[in-house]
């Protein structure tokens, strides 16, 4: 999903806070439904989009229909004014609904999203994620962001 925070009236300096609040709401929602949320996000600033965040949120297929309306609800609560169409853009990763029956399709599309989000990742990290050598990513590598550029659920990290 992409949250076009600045388009929705959030100051570019506050987009990291808005993304953090969004993730907190998603994490709390998942916890109430008996799951832990796996997530990662990256902040960017684009000429046409302003300050925005790309997010990956892992929602189990059985919760997807219940989860679907929540991002819009949370964004409306977080934005300083009225919701503007297009601030939240959600798209499930191709193959997500059949991840158990078609894991190759799901993982190929997840890696494509990671490749897009990790524009300035070092080759060593790309290798760990299986996206090394996928080509140059000239878009978005040199934009100014305020606060953290990226974050992920800490419990997803391997110790050591």
UniProtKB/TrEMBL annotation:
It comes from the Bacteria. InterPro entries: ORF2/G2P_dom. It holds the Pfam family REP_ORF2-G2P. Residues 20-63 form the Replication-associated protein ORF2/G2P domain. This is Replication-associated protein ORF2/G2P domain-containing protein. It comes from Sphingomonas ursincola.
